[in-house]
């Protein structure tokens, strides 16, 4: 085999491996796995979000600072960070907070944290309209966090 033919085959093999890796980001039916720049890193067998057609589904986000991979200090700041982490992923697919079609918020103390969730939502969404939201009190969250928020967003796919 000539050196140039070997180089061409090596280049082709590399291109195919890169293409295969990119193809793994899409399911057989076109569901795209999301991991935008600047987002937190996953720590297990889950993805930050997915795009399926015109909808973006975002996993439960907590108050983690992506730069340090640690929880933000302060209850209100941590809740705000959870929403901002969700917002970053939605925006990476062309959605805004106003494109939220459903939110689910988990808190470990309804009486303490629901008012803070409401305050942060008003800060981020203004005076509304607000998306449909379910808020649920749970016994415990990962790393003994206080809040987790997940969302579904409408973001028409670019054709």
TrEMBL record:
Molecular function terms, GO-annotated: deaminase activity
Pfam families: Ribonuc_L-PSP (PF01042)
GO cellular component: cytosol
Entry-linked SUPFAM superfamilies: YjgF-like
Keywords: Signal
Keyword Signal: yes
Name by which UniProt lists this protein: Translation initiation inhibitor
